[in-house]
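Re: weekly structure request thread

Next one in the queue (358 aa):
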Amino acid sequence: MSVSIRSGFESIPSYRAGKPAQLGPDGLSAKLSSNENPYDPLPSVLDALAAALPASVNRYPSIAAPELTAALAARLDVAPENIAFGAGSVEVASQLIHALAGAGDEVMYAWRSFEAYPILVQLAGATPVQVPLTADGGHDLPAMADAITDRTKLIFVCNPNNPTGTTVTQAAVEAFMQQVPEHVLVVLDEAYVHFNVDADSAVGLDFFKRYPNVAVLHTFSKAYGLAGLRVGYAVAQPEVADALRKAAVPFALSALAQAGGVASLAAEDELQERIDVLVAERERMTTELRAAGLPVLDSQANFVWAPAGTASDGIAEVFAKRGVSVRCFSGDGIRISIGARHENDAVIEVSAAAATLL
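Done, posted below.
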């Protein structure tokens, strides 16, 4: 091949999406590997999507997304100029990195955390700085503060953390912000915020409204169940939001996505009922898996994490044979998304057998 790929590109890992499940003995195929919402969109959301057709297919969408911007600004009590969109919050994270960091600059995050972080940082040509999690799977914010250098441009704090489900407290982030230089942007990535019922957890918008060097990431993929439409956004200071719009892929936020987002915001009461069910299922799953012998951490997301170490691959195979795909991080642990009740029942059914591999 005569085309020359960029030097160092071969060392950048590829993003690994969650895999569908094989059929179990009773025909079950439960994909619990991607933290998706198990429910179909609400009827009112489907109606809004249908109404957006066919013009949303053959015409370019509005880049400004005025209706969704206005609805979010009112919902979050921020100015419209504070909001910038992308094709999912992962694309907005990419915009942030490209806008703020380049060759020689550092982007910091905890590890293990969202696996796209190191990929996005390296694609931008910046240097990833990974700070190990604490023994209980949480962010070590004092260690992250100590790791800040004059090259640090951006710090991601995933709250709740993916894949461990742990949260950072309001007090811990407050102390952390006192140690972060004003020119370093702290990004509170809250993809799973709707499932977070921890009263002590940091709230991104509270920090955004008090610190000019804080941005917040949200998504419609998880609680709102619009993963396939790719709707994410940042809440940031106007100059940062402007930079994100420059870094955005043009027309990435489709008219269908915009319509789905507006309709979902209008149906939040109904959506909250579904969220409450998933939170209750998360607590049931946690109790049952622990009783079976799996070391599941407390989670504030729509998944649970079992730090299974070298047994992770074998445990994932036990679930696979039952017709359930989970997300295996080899040598580290397994993450199990909260699905419909019958899917969660299947996980519980074989969890004792899985625990024997520890």
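The CA atoms of residues 78 and 126 lie 31 Å apart. The first strand starts at residue 30 and ends at 32.
Next request, please.
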